[in-house]
Protein 1
Amino acid sequence: MDPSEYDLPFFHRQGFHRSTCVVCGHAFWTLGDFDRCQEAPCREYGFIGAPIFVRPYSLREMRETFLGFFEARGHTRIRRYPTVARWRNDVFFTQASIYDFQPWVTSGAVPPPANPLTISQPVLRFIDLEEVGRSGRHFTLFEMMAHHAFNRPDHEVYFKDRCTELCHELLVEKLGANPKAFTYKEEVWEGGGNLGPSLSVSALGLEVATLVFMEYTRDGENLKPMPLTVVDTGYGLERFVWASHGTKSAYEPVFGEEYDELRRSFAPHDAAVLIDHARALNFLLTDGVVPSNSKEGYFARLLLRRSLRILGRVPEAPDIYSILERSGREIARDFPEVGMHRDDLRRVVEAEVERYGEAIERARQTIRRTEDRIRSSGGHATSEDLIDWYDSLGVPPDLAVEELREPPPIPNDFYSLVAARHENERPTNDYVEVTQGLPEVPASVPKTEVLYYLDPYTVSFDAHVLWTEGPFVALDRTYFYPTGGGQVTDRGHLGDLEVVEVAWRGPWVLHRLERPSPFRVGDRVRGRVDPVRRTQLMQHHTATHLMNGTLREVLGPHVWQAGAYKATESARIDVTHFRALSKEELRAIDRRVNQIVREDRPVKSYFESRAEAERRFGFTLYQGGAVPGRELRIVEIEGFDVEACGGTHCTHTSEVGAIEILGVERIQDGVVRLNYASGERALEIREEHEEILREAARRLGVPVSRLPEGIDRLLAEIEESRKVARDRRKEDLGETAERLLSDPRATETVGPVTVVAARLDLDRTEMMELSRILSREAGRVVILASEREGRGTLFVGSTAPGISAANVVEAAKPAFDGKGGGSPAAATAVGEPGAPLTTALDAARLAARGTVAA
RNA sequence: GGGCACGUAGAUCAGCGGAAGAUCGCUGCUUUCGCAAAGCAGAGGUCGGGGGUUCAAAUCCCCCCGUGUCCA
């Protein structure tokens, strides 16, 4: 980056000079007298016992001081965003305050909620999980305080100079730090295809702020200026508090009394982990993460299980609920939403604690058994086994060792060895672009006015063709609903041509016709939306909102929509929930959702500013994921459910008709899927089901009400006849056995051994069974031959000591070119097609007799 | 999203190429005034599903489905 990028008038006004760090080689600006930048490790911590700021601050005081400072300087304070970044599909968690505004605000597509703005955003970082509690300064969740400005060519708020000035003023004038203590180190920030200069602000070894100025887009080697430049800053709240105390670790001043309380029962490291994890969990669970074995849910599970492990080591430990509760109460003073659904949160945790107990118990048993097996074969468990057990059973090594009689040593780098196993895994990220297969529309074409938002009942309209290519047509206005938000496309006609698909392409709605469009730009066309299809889709969409609201009500506020699909045949919704639904829950859901349908509540759809909507309804608006735009379209089922949604909806709940739940399944850990139908389809399905029942009853010859008993009777009959057939076959084989034993051509006795040999075309299992009957007594050799599809099979069973069936078969194989083998007790061989089976039988008989003689 | 482990009798699991097993539970009988217990006898299995390899597959290979777990 060009040095002029950092040469700010502010530095000159204040008398800063530029030096180069003798350690890291970076240039920096400072008022002090340093040969190195003040960031660790170039300079070691110097603020322990010598606080950077004039007086100690609590977390709350510091947050308030920061936000107040920027408010007083023209910034608008905005509320935190959820810690789970549902509006993005590239990350699970909000990892910096700027994430709140990516991608739409930073790309310029949507204006920021305020400009400039200030925020304290709780963010999650799992990278340093192992360092938490150990380093004295790492946290899983911390608050990133920030001030952001978004500059458009026509509206410059502020950029590098003013930003740096504000930062310095905060540090020096507001917090009373020594102005000469700081270095502003020149760095380059790059991410998401954008880059720009950045300044890393440090004092006494501690980095207190990063000021990032996004201004270029990378285009290979060249840099292109961005149309919108962004001031992205980050100030760690916990660090500020720490710097104001100058204590040895950051945990005492940040966690205060809570930490002291836990210290009575736990080592400092464990106490810090417990309280850190409790804080992160309170935010995660409040923001709707349900612990599970994948995606964001896994991180919640990880934190909870790590906590449980620590608690499990201390007999007098408080339970996990009281720790979460205590932490939650503390957080709720500043973030009231965290305290709102405590009972629900507790249920989620209870389910998870129970699962953990079960998993560990199962794993303990497995480990014990496995060790027994290893020992009985003369070995002993190895460190490698410990890694196996952790990876596949989830047993931490210290617990595994407790189970073992001969424990191997736990490697010091245990978790690195686990990580090494996962090194070569390649995650696949196959994105399906929605716009795939759609043509490029010239930017000069005016955007489509979408009318279905305003009136979902109008299905016939006139419009002008603005653009057309192949089968695609863009109109100036349309009532056709394009695929989106989980609702499938409308169909219908443009003129006389069928519309087979409708899709968004940027700001245009493209109608795809059954064949190349005959229309010309400027043509006036008549559009007719298939009203039956539209009605069904509307019903299914409104039904989905009703279902979502009902699920939150019945199961609890931890329920979030994780996906939905609305087609004509049926609809489905996937929601986060910690276990499969019970019959009772399902019945309650069915009753409640249909009750709301019958109550005929108004369903209002309207546009509202994003900020206002978020203020009124909170982030639960975004059930279907993030929605772009300054204005949100709100779909509000009065007194029941509010979501940001672009779909077509009924205006009253009774229009949904009825909701018929077709099935429930747990599609993955932590996610439950419900399938259902509404409207006309619900009735159809009900009729189909009734017809199936009637037909089944008719075929069984019982009334519908007696169907279950009828089926039981039928099953009993099948069972009975199977048994009869089996007994019959046994009996037949028994008779055959009697016959063979009394037939001198088949049976001969040689000393202590009776050899039975016969050719009877039986199948394999029958031969085995017959042999078993014949050789009930010891000292029998049974040789059976049969031919199936031209190939001879020879079966030998032996209970005669010293005579191995396998050897007998081996001896007979050459006689009919057979392949096979077996054990001393039983053996089989199959000959080539047409090979002499009788010869083989004789050879086997000879071999058996010969063995006895020898 | 990926790696690994697991899926066998009602339950918990063994077997890991040659004739499907153990323990508990269940049924009947013996013993007892009755119960518990013990003894004897017995019922109960498409070895998750589907392909393939093999003379032979619960066992080896592939694909699904389900469960668990670790990692992003």
Protein 2
Amino acid sequence: MNVPIHPDVPTSSCAGALEPLKVACASCNLRELCLPVGLTPTDLQRLDGLVEKRRSVPRGEHLFRNGDRFEALYAVRTGFFKTCVGSEDGRDQVTGFQMAGELLGLDGISSDQHHCDAVALEDSSVCVIQYRDLEELSREFTVLQHQFHKIMSREIVRDHGVMLLLGNMRAEERLAAFLLNLTQRLQARGFSASSLVLRMTREEIGSYLGLKLETVSRTFSKFQEDGVLDVKQRQITVLDPQALQRLISNAAC
Amino acid sequence: MNVPIHPDVPTSSCAGALEPLKVACASCNLRELCLPVGLTPTDLQRLDGLVEKRRSVPRGEHLFRNGDRFEALYAVRTGFFKTCVGSEDGRDQVTGFQMAGELLGLDGISSDQHHCDAVALEDSSVCVIQYRDLEELSREFTVLQHQFHKIMSREIVRDHGVMLLLGNMRAEERLAAFLLNLTQRLQARGFSASSLVLRMTREEIGSYLGLKLETVSRTFSKFQEDGVLDVKQRQITVLDPQALQRLISNAAC
DNA sequence: CGCTGTTTTGAGCGTCCTCAAGAGTAGTGG
DNA sequence: CCACTACTCTTGAGGACGCTCAAAACAGCG
């Protein structure tokens, strides 16, 4: 388990059942990371109708699949997801890992059907946001509209960063960038920046980074030899974060 | 020059000066590819205020740069662009090539500043769409709002496709996918599907595909030897499009 | 405890990169 | 019109990085 520093951040242990429980964004402790960033408390009240229900997704299950009809976006409440796209000939590529407060399903807007699979990597729960409702409400709330656009744009910027990684970096640099990104996001959620538990396999990391699982494993081992990491299976301790940073900054040297 | 089949599609030859000429989307022959897809002619009339001016960008010049304040989106009217992101240590990655009817600048919404460079690869002209105006109008026109969301989502889906390419494909497959994508987009704009002129260097293609320019050149040569392409510098003729298709479908075999 | 899936590690190989030279093309100015 | 320069593209030879194939160690779970 990743150790929560802020005790009010939800952990997997409080994953709810799949009842359509009314959950107000106003009282959600993820509101500073999630869709309603920037909304005033009074706006938030009126937003209650938007997130009408939760859905829990057990580890290994799909939240949605490539080809599914698109109707809703999903905000991760607890747990951890991966998204992946597949090529015509069966290979697949992990396109991202999503944690609490992050949005899933944006790919579906383009043609009213999903273009990737979303799979829970641990027992998870999401808030279901009907896209029609979001469109309607964002016509009324300028702040919500703007925030939604920002989230989509941020996803585009993120994807461009991944392209840079896949197109230009070597194995060590890719893994370093991946780990730094993970720790930063965990830190923003109140977890330790130096100790983390990977929710995904070496193969999934490899798929995301454009590497084979053996290469990922070897690179972890090398980081351990160099004293940069302590690796015990999926339990990772970052001993020298600056070494990771140097890898991706001085990469050309 | 790519040979227009539909004579009403604009070519570079009619690139305008930089006067703030009033250009109505209603009378633009790109309207079926561009932002106002799906709007009725009467809606289009009311949209006139949105695209208030054009801007022409000579070959080699920047439309915007990483770090520039974000204020507007740009719809390519004529010409051809590349976008690229740079890493901390100076390497850069081409993240896309944009042609007539495609939107530039979506990356800027995330933090009110641009996160990539946009460079004209030939003398080009763009329609300037003030983002504030677009937000405002899309609150009024549901169709416009939805179309805009679709365009952002499509960009995300496209980026995921590029990740798949960069993460899983080998050099020949990457170049085949690139060429098929280009010819399809040119075809949608009324150009030949078999004959095209590349607007970018081997190095830029390589950067986009995560390859070195020598590898791109070698792969072009191999395609020529195999009778799949005819390559005369940047003048490309696709002799066997199905062979390209097979490369990316049967890739694993 | 045995089964299964994940991870580690080794050895050999292939694809693409690096370095380098030369040919082709475009733009500039005499 | 032709040299001159700068840039782009092609092609070759050698090497490096990551992949493939394979086996064994390890962890999780019924």
